[in-house]
Amino acid sequence: MSEAFMMVILIQTKPGQSKEQIAAYTKLAPLVRAESGCLQYDMHGVDSDENKFVLVEKWASKAALAAHDAMPYMVEADALSPGFRTGPATVLFLGPVIA
User: Fold this and answer.
1) Measured by CB atoms within 10 angstroms of the end CB, which terminus of the chain is less buried, N or C?
2) Domains in the chain: ranges and CATH
3) What are the residue ranges of helices labelled H in the chain?
4) What are the tens digits of pLDDT across the range 86-98?
């Protein structure tokens, strides 16, 4: 059984198209949060730039994330995002800090 893990997704929208990103997130958030393996799904805006967003996700397992990525609404959202994003999002998988 794999462990829960967190990831951070950095999103940059095209100038003047931040509302499209917010609308996409607003539509997806309840669907994603209802997935059995989703432990957290929260998007935050960057105060200094209205076109930058950070999505924080926590998943129960890598299998849960794989199932999430295959959901029809995620496939559709991924197909639509190039219309308002400057490019692909940057995905950072987080690990524990070893002191």
Assistant:
1) C
2) 5-94 (3.30.70.100)
3) 18-33, 62-69, 72-80
4) 999 999 999 888 7
